[in-house]
Amino acid sequence: MSDFQNPVAGFGVTFKAMFKKRLTEQYPEEKKPTAPRFHGRHQLNRHPDGLEKCVGCELCAWACPADAIYVEGADNTDEERYSPGERYGRVYQINYLRCILCGLCVEACPTRALTMTNEYELADRTRESLIYTKEELLAGLEEGMVDSPHAIFPGMTEKDYYSGLVSEAAPGTERQVAVSKGERPDEERAGTPETPAPTAERPAGTGVEA
Ligand code: SF4
Ligand code: SF4
C-alpha cells in the first residue's frame, strides 16, 4: 500500500463506524435493567413471619476471598428472639470497598439468609458509608411479617421454618423490645427524663471492624 493509501484506509475504519448503531448508554438518566442473575448488593433475608434467616455462623465471612464480611453471632432468648433457632447474627457488615461481588459468600450460606440483589449503584463519598450494616442489608417487611425480634410461631420448631411450614406471623404476634440494642420497655421509659434524640449522622468509626 502506498503512502497516500495508508491514511485513506485508516479513515475507512472511521467512516464504517459512523454508520453503525450507537452503543452509548445515557446513564444515569436512563438505567438499563441488569441480567436477572447479575451480582449486585447483598440482602439478608427473612422467614415469612419476619424472623431473620441468618444464624450468625460466619461461614460467609470465612468463604469471602476479599475479607469483606464481618459477623458476630449471639444467642436468642425467649424475650428477644431474632431467628427461630439458637443463634442469630447480632452484627453483620459488608465492606463494599473490598467486595468483588463474586457471590462465594452466597454459596457458603447454609440457610439462604444471604442472597444478592441486582442493585449496582454502590458508589459513595466516605469509607464509612460503604460499609453496609445489618440494618441496611436486612430485607424489608412483606405482607404477613412482623419485624424482629418476636416470638417463634407457636408449636413450630426451627426445622419447621426450613420445611416451609410457616407462611406468615402467628395472629397477635408483637415485636419484642430489643434490649440488646438499647431499647427499653414503654413502662420504664415513662417517667424517666427525656434522652437526647440520636443525631442523623453516623458517628465516625461506626462499623469499621470489617
Ligand atoms: S461477593 Fe465475594 S467478595 Fe463480596 S462479600 Fe461475598 S464472598 Fe466476599
Ligand atoms: S449470612 Fe448465612 S453464612 Fe453468613 S453468618 Fe448468616 S447464616 Fe451464616
TrEMBL record:
Gene3D superfamilies: 3.30.70.3270. Residues 167-210 are annotated as: Disordered. [4Fe-4S] cluster 2 binds at C64, C99, C102, C105. Keywords: 4Fe-4S, Cell membrane, Iron, Iron-sulfur, Membrane, Metal-binding, NAD, Oxidoreductase, Quinone, Translocase, Ubiquinone. Signal peptide: none annotated. Its cofactor is [4Fe-4S] cluster. [4Fe-4S] cluster 1 binds at C54, C57, C60, C109. It is found in: Cell membrane. Its EC number is 7.1.1.-. It comes from Streptomyces ochraceiscleroticus. Belongs to the complex I 23 kDa subunit family. NDH-1 is composed of 14 different subunits. Subunits NuoA, H, J, K, L, M, N constitute the membrane sector of the complex. This is NADH-quinone oxidoreductase subunit I. PROSITE patterns: 4FE4S_FER_1, 4FE4S_FER_2. Residues 181-191 have a biased composition (Basic and acidic residues). Residues 192-210 have a biased composition (Low complexity). The lineage of its organism: Bacteria, Bacillati, Actinomycetota, Actinomycetes, Kitasatosporales.
